[in-house]
Amino acid sequence: MLPAVAHWPAGSGGLRDTIRQEIVARQLDEQISGRYPVGQRLRILDAGMGQGTQALRLARAGHTVTGLEADPDLLKAARESLATEPAGIRERVRLIEADGRETGVHFLPGSFDVVLCHGVLMYADEPDALLAGLARMLAPGGLLSLVVRNADALAMRPGLAGDWTGALAGFDSDVYTDDHGVKVRADRLDALTSTLAGIAAPLHAWYGVRVFTDGIPAEAGLPAAEELDRLLAAEDRAGRTEPYRRVAALLHLCGVRG
């Protein structure tokens, strides 16, 4: 198993989730290393952290991380994963049961160098307000990292599966059904680019995530290490390369606070 993948928390999901977490991690690390000196301990907020996969990874890298999660079951899983870490890492992580819209209640503006909002926007009733609040948490020059479902690629999964009715519906839709059977929203690159400009965190870079592997069953397990290495290398390259990144299942957008 790849060293990075070996550190994902137990129960973090099958192959598809592992691909998402690993590819987003590589892309995020690239953006962080391009903005901050090596070794600088950053203040990071993970809004809607889930079970804490990225939060714990960043804490292991030496950063101070605050995780917000409204779902008590996911928060419990994050706390259990954190409890298995060495004391030095546990001391760098603060977990709060709260919604990403409540940042103004807990923190002062400009309190963080990096803010993550991964897989959250699709469930938000007022996404623009959520993003504006998160942007206010950034110090000048800070990085806002968003992972969203790509509305411009909603026809891809059903089309590749031979579901022509679903593919035709996907062309003009901004709604899809997630793995839990819940209908949620997807976002378009152009619209989010405008939104980021409007909240003073204009788009700096963007990537695709899961270009080739979105159709893998959610329960599929990991392949052998060498095969996983090749798979991740292909996904990593596709997520940075035109035209492949435009048809990725997910988009990873990085804005920088002006």
TrEMBL record:
One of its GO terms (molecular function) is methyltransferase activity. The keyword Transferase applies. GO terms for biological process: methylation. Residues 45-145 form the Methyltransferase type domain. InterPro entries: Methyltransf_11, SAM-dependent_MTases_sf. SUPFAM superfamilies: S-adenosyl-L-methionine-dependent methyltransferases. It comes from the Bacteria. It comes from Streptomyces zaomyceticus. Signal peptide: none annotated. This is Methyltransferase domain-containing protein. Keywords: Methyltransferase, S-adenosyl-L-methionine, Transferase.
